[in-house]
């Protein structure tokens, strides 16, 4: 996989991820108006359980499948790659079938056990079909990512979300007369319908891909280097790789849950009322975290693209190509993360006012949390690089250490004058440690050193120029337009132009390498 193809794949997945996030927000707005707070409560109750059940198939398996397939293709073993996919598909179908059966046949038991309202039964039934098809999608997405063909994954994500919105809201509209419970259940079925449509798209791509491009793109299987793995060996390899990634995803969820428990309890001890705590926590999770997650869409996409690319070079023992890909991924991630963090820091109150129309509430939280864009992005990419080099448990260890640091720092700082910012500082400390530990391991594994001039100094210089642009342009636009929101939008656009123009002029990015590079 060339640098060009690596970056192209990352940008395709990032755009699809942003589109999916937008559609997700678009889904909740009309649904809220249609079924109200009670209906949204019924709609949302089963989702934590549903997400937990899918955490393995969504988080770990696509990465495992893509890595193993990419390794087989590095040795021109197409038959081996296809065999890995078919075994993975069968395994994930069984997992999905079991999960769907559990939700469908255990809905009443779940309601009784968790003491949920009886009307939540319909929401569980609506979701019950989704695990089967989401698991199938995971297998297909891992297959295409292993082939370094990101288009099907991106298109299926968008189709899945469109189906969820149109069918979920549409069915809710037609069933609202039957009662809130039925309407909430119909909205939940939107997730199942979207997953079915996503599978249809991927199956179509699979047959088209096998009939045309792949036959031309890849050479026939090289019998001399083909490695015949038993079905059990394939399953063992997939599980060995998928489990630590999945545990990492669960650990991230647990860290969020710890915040939800620790922040209120510590702030109450600090003399804050329940109402004040609710407002502060809402500003953290509902505003600051939401906005920080937007630029992280790119690092998530890059992480998905880099695993098969690294696995390909590592399996061929091509040290030069391996370091070249790591350098390209790191540089691109930093070039995206730095201005995103700076923009959120400089215009935090204005961005919150633009989106929520509630003045500057939460701006101070977003300003500090913006640093996490840098630490999470780089740490995530380094973790994926390690996974691609078979160091799958090292990123998990780093994340576990980071989680402990986060809890300890948050615990003590929440009682200080920082209040909710104590939790933010704890998060920053934790993810900074994760980034440093992962970098040390990458350096130790292959002797990689980050390129200071093009990957750090030039992006920092461009960020400084961008900061100056915001500093002068924003107040100037405010005085002339008399509109804070328009001034903010123009300032953001101007800052982006200044930043990327500086990147271009300083030649931080080698255009020949990134645009016209060959496989």
UniProtKB/TrEMBL annotation:
Where does it sit, as one GO cellular component term? plasma membrane
Which keywords label this protein? Answer: Cell membrane, Membrane, Transmembrane, Transmembrane helix
Localization recorded for this chain is:
Cell membrane
Q: Name one Pfam family in it.
A: Polysacc_synt
> Which top-level group of life is the source organism from?
Bacteria
Phosphoprotein found in the keyword field: no
* TM region(s), chain numbering: 7-27, 47-69, 89-114, 120-144, 165-183, 189-209, 238-258, 288-311, 332-352, 364-382, 394-414, 420-440, 456-474, 486-505
InterPro entries, per the entry: PG_synth_SpoVB (IPR024923), Poly_Biosynth_Transport (IPR050833), Polysacc_synth (IPR002797)
Q: Does the keyword NAD apply?
A: no
**Per the annotation, which location comes first and is thus the protein's main one?**
membrane
- Per UniProt, what is the membrane topology? Multi-pass membrane protein
Q: What is this protein called?
A: Polysaccharide biosynthesis protein
